[in-house]
């Protein structure tokens, strides 16, 4: 069945059938039982999705997709997470880097990179964040200087994800200094296996490590520029809206919640109103987060992205993990703190790992504080 002949409902049904296949369930179970020191990178399930054109279903067929829309892309993310498949490298490769290339890349860049990303054969990451800059991308200090018809790139990025598994990265660098932080930022495609690029892992709260990427005088050709030179700030603000729907955050919280409910049922605590009533309230909040997220997807489908609505959806959805994890502690008590190293850990340590990872959900795709600022300033006119 081609993408044009497939409805959104049919696509979701086929995704569920795919994620229920033995080969996929076997890999998911193996990933679930990985020790806390292990980290997932390129997955076989990504390649299998790519063979079907499902890894980037909203991309044109010529670039490895099905020619479907934002709703089908959101359905993939949702079903992937509900099935227990990690989505981080998929989000980076398809949802962010691929989106930038699809909307702002040159024809040559699209031909060279999009099919390989959509097939799962190639992976990409993002190099935006720098030490001491926090959420202020306008303060970045990585530079790219014109040289010989290309650009000489120097700088260091930190708190990046999955760089050790990626072939290339979308990197933000300052290409001119006008005294205005938002001016003079350019986006580049950086090959991470090149001499002059050094990738090191950095410990994090969660099982997955951050990376630090040092770029020591890498010479890039002019065709490494994504979009127009010095226009990176505008591109980042416009295109990150397409990623910030809240779908992934609500789905992650829902998976944790379903695990907590299952644990409560097994222990008999679900029959106790002291436990069941707060869980019912949490269920309602998660349903609200889902509704907010899908409203943003519908806006994207109509070609009407809503910056304030996206901030609301992301903020609300990402905040739900904390009360869910508190509920897990109330159901399992101190056992919820047992890690995957302990054979007695509930759910193979998934809850403990989620407790450590939970704070990062408030940071990814824009911190909760930044989202609230956008809502207050642009939505309510309070600032």
Give the secondary structure arrangement, pairings included.
Blueprint lengths: L7 H12 L2 H11 L11 H8 L18 H13 L5 H17 L2 H13 L4 E4 L15 E5 L2 E12 L6 E7 L10 E7 L5 E6 L7 E11 L4 E2 L5 H12 L3 H21 L5 H29 L5 H13 L1 H12 L17 H12 L6 H12 L4
Parallel strand pairs: 1-4
Antiparallel strand pairs: 2-3, 3-7, 4-5, 5-8, 6-7
Helix pairs in contact: 1-4, 4-8, 5-6, 5-7, 8-9, 8-10, 8-11, 9-10, 9-11, 10-13, 11-12
Structural overview:
Belongs to the acyl-CoA dehydrogenase family. The protein is of the alpha+beta class and 383 residues long. The protein has 3 domains: 8-123, Butyryl-Coa Dehydrogenase, subunit A, domain 1 (Orthogonal Bundle); 126-230, Butyryl-CoA Dehydrogenase, subunit A, domain 2 (Beta Barrel), CATH 2.40.110; 244-379, Butyryl-CoA Dehydrogenase, subunit A, domain 3 (Up-down Bundle), CATH 1.20.140.10. Helices cover 48% and strands 14% of the residues. The protein is built from 13 helices and 8 strands. It has a 4-stranded mixed β-sheet, covered by helices on one side. Strands 2-3-7-6 form a 4-stranded antiparallel β-sheet, covered by helices on one side. The relative contact order is 0.10.
């Amino acid at each position: 069945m081609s993408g044009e002949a497939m409805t959104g409902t049919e696509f979701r049904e086929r995704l569920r059938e795919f994620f229920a296949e033995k080969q996929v369930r076997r890999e998911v179970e193996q990933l679930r039982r990985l020790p806390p020191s292990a980290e997932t990178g390129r997955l076989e399930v990504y390649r299998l999705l790519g063979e079907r054109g499902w890894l980037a279903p909203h991309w044109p067929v010529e670039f490895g997709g099905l020619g479907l829309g934002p709703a089908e892309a959101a359905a993939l993310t949702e079903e992937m997470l509900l099935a227990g498949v990690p989505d981080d490298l998929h989000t980076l490769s398809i949802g962010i880097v691929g989106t930038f290339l699809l909307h702002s890349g040159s024809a040559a860049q699209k031909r060279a990179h999009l099919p390989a990303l959509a097939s799962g054969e190639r992976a990409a990451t993002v190099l935006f964040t720098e030490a001491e800059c926090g959420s202020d991308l306008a303060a970045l200090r990585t530079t790219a200087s014109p040289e010989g018809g290309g650009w000489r790139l120097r700088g260091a990025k930190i708190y990046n994800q999955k760089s050790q598994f990626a072939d290339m990265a979308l990197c933000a660098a300052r290409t001119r200094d006008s005294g205005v932080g938002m001016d003079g930022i350019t986006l580049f495609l950086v090959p991470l296996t090149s001499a002059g690029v050094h990738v090191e892992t950095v410990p994090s709260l969660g099982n997955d490590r951050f990376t630090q990427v040092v770029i020591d005088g890498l010479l890039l050709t002019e065709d490494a520029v994504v979009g127009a030179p010095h226009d990176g700030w505008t591109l980042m603000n416009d295109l990150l809206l397409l990623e910030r729907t809240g779908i992934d955050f609500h789905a992650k919280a829902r998976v944790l919640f379903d695990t907590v409910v299952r644990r409560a049922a097994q222990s008999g605590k679900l029959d106790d109103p002291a436990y069941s009533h707060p869980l019912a309230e949490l269920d309602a909040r998660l349903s609200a987060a889902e509704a907010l997220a899908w409203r943003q997807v519908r806006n994207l489908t109509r070609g009407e992205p809503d910056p304030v609505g996206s901030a609301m959806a992301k903020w609300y959805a990402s905040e739900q993990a904390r009360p869910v994890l508190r509920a897990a502690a109330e159901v399992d008590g101190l056992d919820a703190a047992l890690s995957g190293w302990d054979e007695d850990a509930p759910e193979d340590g998934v809850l403990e790992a989620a407790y450590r990872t939970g704070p990062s959900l408030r940071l990814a795709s824009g911190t909760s504080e930044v989202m609230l600022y956008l809502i207050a300033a642009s939505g309510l006119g309070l600032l």
